[in-house]
Amino acid sequence: MSGITWIEIDLDAIEHNLKAVKRKVGNDTKILAIVKADAYGHGAVRVSQALIDNGVDMLGVAFPEEGIEIRKNNINIPILVLNPVLSEQVEDILKYSMEVTVCSLDIARELSKTAKRHCCNIRIHVEVDTGMGGAGVTPGKALSFIKALQLIENLEIEGIFTHFNSSEEKDKSFAREQNNIFKEVIKQIGDEKIRIPLIHAANSAAILDMPDSYFNMVRPGLILYGIFPSNYVSRKIDLKPAMSVKTKIINLKHLDPGRTIGYGRTFEILKRTTVATIPVGYRYSYNRRFSNLGKVLINGKRASIIGRVCMDRCFIDVTNLQDVEIGSEVILYGNQRNEAISIESAAELIGTIPYEIVCNIGTKVPKKMYKTAKYP
Q: What CATH number did the domain enclosing 215 receive?
């Protein structure tokens, strides 16, 4: 794959997007940048460093091993593990100085015991389940849970947060209800004179549409990479896509009417057609649902995927394109001349979400990082 199919990551675009988020939420709101899933396929280590250079306050990962990779690359900013951890992960949490989500007193005691043995404290964030239905303590038990945590040695309650489950949907009424429930929990805690430094709820969609959910920290994820979470969020922010996915034509041939293309013979040639082969397929997370549906860019023009996407190649109709040859560059996602295939439009075409596109392909294809200095 190296040199034939690759991802380009524009770090300047990520820096530009972070600045746009900062303008949106204001200087007094801290930024917890989400870099889980290898920074949504963009490369967690390099992206984290670019974000730190531009003033983020904390990084968010899903699992301890993601934070460990970042720590091993000499990044010392606070890192929060957003999922609950198991007892066998506690040593690594301490060893690599990560903050951790807690919604179980048993794990809290395990953290305490390990921290006490190492003669240190560990910072924790409490998740409140206002409607996601997974991890987190219920709102009615949040205050008593926090009071119980206060009695456990070697723990510092650094933050409290909730997780919206529909802030990117057209109907945001449930997300607003979640936010109101969370506000009530925060009020109850404040009424008891309990101070928790960091309060956060807003993901990318909420940053765009729910300013009353900012509290004193927000958690931008997808928008840092220049991608909107859905068609139902505000576009009143200047985002630049950071990821482009490129490959090259490895074969050209002419087929006469009556021939078929690919597995299952799902595409029949109706007129003399020039067919290009590119070396990407579902093995490299180019989704099979693009079969007979997807588009690519060649020389700034759109060309259609014909036949089924195979494991490691697919076929393109280039009959009407000029100056196409073996080795010509092909854009799967990104810009070329005055045309673009966005991650969002590609996801919509096959009935999935942008997160799936970038996370899947980003783990399979080599990356080239660069800075363009083209964004103010």
A: 3.20.20.10
Share of the chain above pLDDT 90, in %: 94
Considering 198, 225, 252, which residue would you say is the last residue of a domain?
Answer: 225
CA-based nearest residue to 261, from 218, 302, 310: 310
Give 12-66 pLDDT, tens digit per residue: 999 999 999 999 999 999 999 999 999 999 999 999 999 999 999 999 999 999 9
Long-range contacts of 146-150 (CB under 8 A, 24+ apart): 146/189, 146/194, 146/196, 147/192, 147/194, 148/105, 149/102, 149/105, 149/108, 149/124, 150/194
Domain check: are 203 and 292 in the same one?
no
Catalytic residue among 24, 30, 36, 172, which? 36
3 exposure class (CB count in 10 Å sphere: 0-12, 13-18, 19+) = exposed
Q: Which domain holds residue 281?
A: 243-341
Structural contact between residues 288 and 308, judged by C-beta atoms closer than 8 angstroms: yes
- The number of distinct structural domains making up the chain is 2
Same domain? For 174 and 283 the reply is no
Q: pLDDT digit string (tens) for 84-140?
A: 999 999 999 999 999 999 999 999 999 999 999 999 999 999 999 999 998 999 999
As given in the structure block, the two tokens for residue 145 are: 């849970």
Question: What token pair was written down for 336?
Answer: 């070329």
In the annotation, is 40 catalytic?
no
pLDDT per position as a tens digit, 193-224: 999 999 999 999 999 999 999 999 999 999 99
Question: Are 161 and 209 within one domain?
Answer: yes
Q: Could you say which of 95, 147, 253, 263 is catalytic?
A: 263
The answer to whether residue 373 sits within a structural domain is no
pLDDT confidence of residue 2: 53
| Domain-embedded: residue 263 | yes
Can you give the pLDDT at residue 150? Answer: 97
Whether 318 is covered by a domain: the verdict is yes
**Which CA distances in Å does 69 have to 64, 106, 157, 259?**
9, 27, 25, 50
Tell whether pTM > 0.90. Answer: yes
Same domain, 94 and 36: yes
CA distance linking residue 290 with residue 294, whole number of Å:
5
Query: If you write DSSP's letter for every residue of 325-349 in order, what string do you get?
Result: -TT-EEEEEEEETTEEE-HHHHHHH
